[in-house]
Amino acid sequence: MKELTKESSESEMDNVYEGKKILILGGTGTIGRYLVNQLLKYSPEVIRIFSRDEYKQFELQQEFREYVNIRYLIGDIRDERRLLRAMEDIDYVFHLAAMKHVPACEYNPFEAVKTNVIGTQNVIQAALEAKVKRVLFTSTDKAIAPSNTYGATKLTAERLISATEFQKGPKKTIFSSVRFGNVMGSRGSVIPLFKKQIIEEKRVTVTNLEMLRYMMTPSEAISLLLKANEMAYGGEVFVLKMPVVELRDLVQVMIEEVTKKYRITDRILIDEIGLRPGEKMFEELMTEDEATVALETTELFVLQPPYGRAERVYPDVKEFSGEAPSPFKEYIIDKETLRRWIQNEKLI
What we know:
Elements: H1 12-15, E1 21-25, H2 30-39, E2 46-51, H3 54-63, E3 70-74, H4 80-86, E4 92-95, H5 102-107, H6 109-130, E5 134-140, H7 149-164, E6 174-180, E7 182-183, H8 190-200, E8 203-206, E9 212-216, H9 218-231, E10 237-240, E11 244-246, H10 247-261, E12 269-272, H11 288-293, E13 295-296, E14 300-303, E15 318-319, H12 335-344
Parallel strand pairs: 1-2, 1-4, 2-3, 4-5, 5-6, 6-10, 7-9, 8-12
Antiparallel strand pairs: 9-11, 10-14, 13-14, 13-15
Helix pairs in contact: 2-9, 4-6, 6-7, 8-10, 10-12
């Protein structure tokens, strides 16, 4: 069996997971896989992976078959009783489970409500009853001024998490949220889609080449997710600072890299098909109102809950005096940086 060892450069933040019991809800997705891989370095007592996708669980079992401290639980966050059993003796919960596909949520809005909103409330209730130490919820930049069902349900879930901080009474569980943008290479994202289209169809379908998106690598997402979890006092929304990618650049880099790797000599066509229902040309990280009360560190913004702020001291933090970050004001990464990301993360 594989021996679990911590890296020699391990920081104090990393040590908090040693010997702990961790539950990852929706743990079979891309972020879940990266999170499991990272947490294993810190020698937790057990990691429970909870999802309703048995095939993805089977794949994960094959990937991590050498580890003896991983448990695989079939279940749905819509089922509070199942969640409660999964949380028995758990220290930390990472809530990654959601309906995420924008068109699917638009076409099946109440299904999105049942998973993203009611499911999150089930997580809250189960965590309080099980006396979990910390719960971290992963939200999205689409929750800001939402134009679609997905964003609206994630915003509601964010508010449920934050509101729990001043409704939980004597319970000690710390609840907080992290807002992600697009994570490169994640399941359902455009990078694997573009790769498949280039290889099989010799064309790429794009909603709009002028579209801008906040984007980060999976490794960056996990690093900042763990940092936010340790910083939280309760009720915060941590907004990860992310560079902006222009879709035109992403398409061009993907065509260049995929055709080179797979020795494709055909001309690759680009079809602009227009925005899908609920899509925006660009996303935001926070609203103008949130920006007026935000705190800022080197790597993230901290949106505190409306109550109980006075005694909170965050490391490396200052008041944020700027405007709400916008992709038109933030740094848009160049094509070579984007190419390096894709190569380093082995996304093709």
